[in-house]
Structures are given as C-alpha cells and as structure tokens.
Amino acid sequence: MDDVLDEWRYSIFESQMEESNAAAEVPRKQKVLLWWSCVIPSSCLCFKKVVVRREIALKIKQVKARLDLILAEKDRYGFAITEQSSSSSDLPHGESWRVQSTSLIDLKEVCGRESERETLVAKLVAEGSSEQEACGVCVLSVVGVGGLGKTTLAQLAYNDSRVKNCFELRIWICVSDPFDVFGIANDIIVKARGSKPQGTKQLDILLDCVTKSISRKKILLVLDDVWTEDDTLWKALKIALNCGGGLGSKVLVTTRNERVAIMMGASENGIHHLGHLSDKDCWLLLRRIALCGKNEEEYERFDKIGKAIANKCRGLPLAAKTLASLLRFKKTLEEWESVLSSEIWELEKVEVELFPHLLLSYNELSPALKRCFSYCAVFPKDTRIDVERLITKWMALGYLGSNADDGWKIRGREYFENLAAHSLFQDFRKDGDDKIESFMMHDIIHDFAQFLRKNVGSRMEKTTCQACSRLLVSQVKVYRSLLFDRVDDPHLCDALTSVRLLSLRSCRSRGIPKEIEKLIHLRWLELGHNEFACDDDLKSICKLYNLQFLWVNQCELQEIPSEVGNLIHLIHLDLGYNTHLKELPESLCNLRELESLNVEGCANLARLPQGIHKLVNLKHLNVDGTDSLKQYPQGLAHLTRLVALEKFLPCDGSRLGWLKNLNRLSGKMELELEIRRHDSVAAVVEDAREAELWKKMHVHELRLNFHDESSSVWIDVLDALKPHPNLQHLTIYNYNASRLPGWIASPLNQVTYISLRFCESLSTLPPLGKLPLLETLHIIGLSELDFVGRQFLGITTTTSSSSSVGTIIGAFPKLKKLTFSSCSKWKEWEDITAEEENEEEHSEVTASLSIMPCLTELEITFCIRLRRLPHRLLRKVSSSLKKLDISCSTQLKNVYGNKYGQPWKSITQHNPHLRIID
C-alpha cells in the first residue's frame, strides 16, 4: 500500500514541477496566454492526469483484493486474533510445551565452563555486606541467548559441593512462561517440606506458608528460565522470601532478557553475561555426541572437518548438540562435507531442533521489534553494525512509524536496547557516555534472522535483465535494500524499482547511475566516498521526492543544485568533507522536515543560507572544520529545536546572544571568542550575558577559545558565560586575563574535567579543590604562573554546633589525574603545614584532613624552574599515587632523580610502589 501511495504522491509532485517549470519558461509577452492556459488546462495535461489516476485506482483495487483474500482465508482456516497473556489462568500449570529443566546434571556431558562456574560459585558463597543484607535476599542472574548454556551453568553451581555446604536449603524451580506465582509458591513449600491448607486459592495464605516453611533458613532458590518483566508478579514472592529467608539467602535467576534480571533486583555486579564456548570445547561437545562409541582412528579421520563444523557453531552449545545429532547418522566424510558447506538455516535438523529455542525469544517481541530484528540479516556475517545508521534504515523502511510525532530516534534507540536486552546482539562498543555505538550478531542468530525471512523471498523473482541476478532481485523483495560496497559501477535495472534503501558507498562511480531516477520508493540513499565528475548528477537525485536520508559526503562536489529543495521529506542531509563547496542554495531552506545537516570538513564553505530560520525542525547542525565560515545567519536564533551545535563563531555580524533561546542544546559546544574593533566593552559583555549559557542544562562539554591578546574585558565576558552546574567537561583556551571568575570553583558544579590551556596572563589559580566531582585537571602553558598556594586546594572547615569535630570541604576529593605542563615561570608549590599533615592524630577534636585521596597520576613536565615538590602534601596523598612524571623539569630531576636520595625517600616513605618517570 505504501508503494501505491508513493506513486500517487510522486505523480502529483511531478505534475506540479512540470507546471512550475513551464510557467518559468514562458516569455513575458505570452503572459496572457499563460493566464488563459491556467484557466483552461491543455487537453494533454488533463489526459495525463486521468491516466495516472486510473492506474493508481487499479492498483488500489488490487491491494484491496489481496486484503479481502487474506481476510477470507483467515475465516476459512479458523485463525483467531489473540493477545499473548502472562496470566497463569490462561495456561494450566505444567501444560506448556517447553521441557522443564531439573537440577540434575551429568558432569561427563559438560564441556568447558570451568572458569565461569568458579565465578558464579564464588558469588553464591560470598558473604554479603551489611548494606546488602539489609536489602533482603541477594539476587544473582545468568543472562544469555537461548541455547547458550545458562541452565547448565546454574546446574553446575547448584550441585557444587561448596554451594551445598553453604546453604541449609536448596530449591530448584523451572519457571518458564507464564510466571505462575501460585505454582512457584506451592513448589517452594513442597521442596521445603512445609505444610499448607488443602485447596486454597488465596495467594496470601500460600505466601505465608512459604515464609514459615523457610523460616530463618539460609536458602538458595534457583528460578530457571524466567521471562516476565512484570514486577508485580515477582514483588509479593520476593517479600515472602525476605521475611522468611535467613541471612545470606540468595536467588539465582536464569533468563534471556537482561531487563528481567534488573526487574528482579540483580545489581550490575550480580548479572553474569554468559560467554560462548571456545571452538575447542565446541568440538569436544560435538565429537562426544557425533562420534559416540567410535575409536581413536575414527576420531582422527573426522578431526579436521569436525573442527571446521564446530567452528560454525560459534560457541553456541545447543548448535553443537544439534549438528552433532545430525552428524551421528552420517558415516562418510562426503556427508560431513555437505553439512559443512550448507548454511545452517538450510539444514532441516537445525530448523526442527535449534531454531524453536530461538523462536521463544522471537515470539516475545512485538511485531515492530520482530521486523527490526529480522532485517539485520541483510548485513553480511561478521559485520560491525552502527546503531545510529541502523535506526535510520528502520525509519526508512517504516518500522518506526511516521515522523509526525518527531520521536523516531528515541523510539529506534528503545527498540535497539530492547533487542540487545534479549541477548540477540553482542560485541558492543560504547562511547564515553556508556552508550552503545555499534554491535555484531552471532552467526547462529544471523542464520536465524535469515530463516525468519526465507519464506518472504523463497520464490526467486524473474528478471529479463542480464546484469542482475535473480538472487539480487529477490533480496530487494525481502529486504527492500541494496547495500553495494566498493562495487565498480553497479547496475540498476527496472527489476529493482521497489528498493527503499540503496548504498553506493565507495563504488568508484564517476557519475550517479541515470537509472536512479526510476527508484521513486527510495527513502535512504548513501553515495559517500565517490568522486562525481559533474554536479548535474545530483539533479537526478532531486527527483526522488520520497527521500528521507541522503549521504553525499566526500564526493568532491563544488555546487549543490537548487533542485535539492524538491526533497521536501528529507530528514538527514550529509554534505561533509566536500572541500570545494563554497555555499549552499537558499532552496535548501524549503526542507521543513530536515532534522540533521552536516557540513563538517567543508573547508571552503563561506556562508549558510539566509533563510535557515525556515528549517523549523532542525536539531543537528555540524559545522566543525568549516574554517572559511565566518558568519552565521541571524535566523539561527529562531532554531529553538536545535540540539547539537558543536561550534559557534560570534564574529562578522554573528552574536553570542543568538544562543539565548536555544536551550535544547546538548552534548558538546565550542565557542570562538574575539572582540571586533567597533564593539564596546559593555556591548561585548552584554552579548555574552544574553547567550544565557546557565540555562543550557543539557550541554555537558564546553570549550571556550579566545582569539585576542590580553584584555581586561575577558574577565567580565567569562563571568557572563557561566554554564549550567550540570556541565561535566570544561576547556578554556588562550584566555588572557589575570584571574578566573568565581563560578569556576563553585562546589555546586558537577564538572569532572577541567583543562586550562595557554592562558598566558593567568598568574593565580582559583580554589579548584572545592569541586566535589573533579577527576582530571590539566594546567598547561600558563607562562605567568609562578606560585601555587594552599588556596588552590580549596580547604575550608565547618563545625556543627553539636560536635567539636569539623568537616573538611575541598582538597580535591575525587581527583585522579593532575597535570602541570609548560609553566615556565613556576617556582614554588606551597606545602601544607606540619599540623595539617598530622591532624589525623587529633581527629577526635578537630577535622581530619584528606588531600587528593584518589590521585593516581601526577605530571609536572617542562616546568623548568620548579625546584621542590610539597612533601607533606604528597605524603598525605599516600598510597593512591602510582605515577609521578617529571619529564623535562630539569630542577626536579636533579632533586628527585636519585631514588636513594633523601628527597625521594621523603615522599615515598608511605608509598614504596610509586613509579617515577624522568
């Protein structure tokens, strides 16, 4: 249906463009005729519209006929639309088709898992802290995809002698789905040899019996194969366990879904993500089953090919067992070769015995999540998949709904996190904010995703094109995607017109294929890393009116055609690193749905469109590396939905005050600051104050670059640029004033990183020790700094009226790394007093002074005049300090370079493991 609507919209828009172009080409003397033609349209144009409408009507009729047929077949075969329920009343206890697990295990059948068993057993028998004991029973969890061996690991731990000796009572319950609280409570009572009233249907009575039956006993309760995320089902049972279980009681949960583990109360340290078996252990497991009863000669004969087949399992024990049961009845090397050369998802044995276990996880997903997951089979195996790029693909395919509610990115990230929590993805790479950037799929999971889509494209599509294979055409039908990568001049034919996603990245194309104009259903197009010979090539793209995502980065473009304004549905446009690009057309501002514009690395881009205020949905504007861009349009001030603007240049007419209403800005921001000749001091300060940085609560990283020589006005400017306390990273570069404003050392700040670089006029340091969360401090290139006093530590003491013991505030409580570099005039670092060093001895009546208790690295490099370190202070730092770097600080090297000398012994007497780098 979407395709039919695409064609309808395309025909309407094309007709509008033709009329507009025709009107533009009519000479002035023919304006009367033009007016007349508008009143009475030409018969040719009217006939064309009639033809288009008839074709669309026929296609709608065909779609309706297909829907009617589906509805008729539903009634014919008695299909019913039902909602899956987790209520125990829908399924009698024990009637699930899933085989129940038990606590019994044959150790001879287990291969590997020694280290993971030791890890889990250690957690089970470990004594909890007083805080953990106060929270009740401790919940541990084993998380992993189906068939990975979670139950086996739990059985190994459950039957370990150390665990048996640690707990008075051990109970194993296979939960599965639904989570039957009545059944679980009843099983606990039976296992604990407790009593209960006959025939009761009251949960309260059963849970009271649970509490009494385990009363004050140290128990281990294993809940195997838990699926529900509904905490209301677990809450009542957990309360009963907390009331009845003795100190040290634990609950071990196995689940495929990390969200289940978190819901049940497992901490981050209490969640064990089960790893894969080694290829060696996979082969041992496969050989034990496939070659059961064979002699050593048979082992050697099948050893090489058997190891190759075991490698296909990629550490999944259930896959090894399934293939082994298939190979058990194959006696020749040729038959084993056939299994090796087959795709796993094509093997009937795998489809019958392995995939049903994965289908359990799959069937727990919503229809939208199912589509998102199975689409991932489009990527080749062993591909590292970028999460943000994948979300744009899901959006282009319609899996995330429409863009009307403006939340597709958030929804896409939620979908991904959900799939990841179900253990369907692995090998995550995260950014500095602990956000997953990319991932990979296990080969078996990839095969399973292919299996899910195989029925969609099982019938090979016919094609008369000699250049396109039937497989390629079928792939377009199944995935609506063509992802070419480094393919020379790929061919696009009429058989591929239904494609929605097309990547021609790095295809060494000298031009955009002309056939691309026919791909009217395209939503997502990547053309990056190609060198287009002619800018007119882009005009063919500008006819793809349904396009939402477009990458033409690093394509050596010199000009963007004005026709780009026709792409009215565009959400993302990447023009990055087209270094010859000098300007953007004003028609770009017609893209009202545009959310992201990237011109990063366009070194010759001199200006942005004046009508940029029309881009009312713009959220991301990346102008990093645009060295020729000296002015922003004033319309930037109206982009109140802007989230990312990493660099701002208030010069040549641009003003900091334009940032006033951009309070959604987040992440990183860099401000380039300079004073123009015609600006008064008052105007510069007022402009900085109008930016209202203190309202930008989502900006977590701020870099301030000053470009003028020493000026007293910079003190007031920097004071006016006070950021929100949520700021985490602050870098000040080339600030040429004698002091810093007071806000920088406010204890209310949440900053964790500060870097002061080449602030050559700065002669004193503020009391940065007051910052409660500061972890990294870099002081580099402060050429006028000659003295670092005790005030740098920010030490203040407060005493309550009810106690004579004071509380120390300051002294860098979280600082881990401190760097001084290239401070050429620095001569002295003031030490603390002897009384302050020994205050711990008198802590009953005074405050106990702790200085830099977390410091691990101290670097003092290229500080050629500093002669001595503060010994008492460093002794106070004590054993936390691991590395002292005094490279190129000549006088310090002379004093402390001798590890047997008294100065070195003085600062290491409490820290003999301190390592010096000189």
User: Can you tell me the overall shape?
Assistant: globular
- Biggest sheet: strands, sense, closure? 10 strands, parallel
Q: What is the strand content? A: 5-15%
Class of secondary structure makeup: alpha/beta
Number of helices: 29
What is Rg? 35 Å
E-strand count: 30
Helix percentage range:
25-40%
Report the average pLDDT across residues: 84
What brief labels describe this structure?
alpha/beta; ten-stranded parallel beta sheet; single chain; globular; 29 helices; eight-stranded parallel beta sheet; 918 residues
Description:
- Residues 31-41, 84-97, 457-464 and 841-846 have low confidence and may be disordered.
- By secondary structure, the protein is of the alpha/beta class.
- Strands 17-18-19-20-21-22-26-28-29-30 form a ten-stranded parallel beta sheet, with no helix packed on it.
- Strand 19, helix 25 (713-720) and strand 20 form a beta-alpha-beta unit.
- Helix 8 (181-191) runs parallel beside helix 9, helix 9 (203-213) runs parallel beside helix 10 and helix 13 (296-312) runs parallel beside helix 15 (333-341).
Explain briefly what this protein structure is:
By secondary structure, the protein is of the alpha/beta class.
Which helices and strands appear, and what pairs or packs with what?
Layout: H1 2-25, H2 31-39, H3 43-77, H4 114-125, H5 130-134, E1 138-143, H6 150-158, H7 161-166, E2 169-176, H8 181-191, H9 203-213, E3 219-226, H10 231-244, E4 250-255, H11 258-263, E5 271-273, H12 279-290, H13 296-312, H14 317-327, H15 333-341, H16 348-353, H17 355-363, H18 367-375, E6 385-386, H19 387-396, H20 408-421, E7 426-430, E8 436-440, H21 443-453, H22 470-479, E9 481-485, E10 501-505, E11 524-526, H23 537-541, E12 549-551, E13 572-574, E14 596-598, E15 620-622, E16 644-645, E17 647-648, E18 666-673, H24 681-690, E19 698-706, H25 713-720, E20 729-733, E21 753-757, E22 776-780, E23 787-788, E24 796-799, E25 806-809, E26 817-821, E27 828-829, H26 834-837, E28 857-861, H27 871-877, E29 883-885, H28 890-896, H29 902-908, E30 915-917
Parallel strand pairs: 1-4, 1-5, 2-3, 3-4, 9-10, 10-11, 11-12, 12-13, 13-14, 14-15, 15-16, 17-18, 18-19, 19-20, 20-21, 21-22, 22-26, 23-27, 26-28, 28-29, 29-30
Antiparallel strand pairs: 6-8, 7-8, 24-25
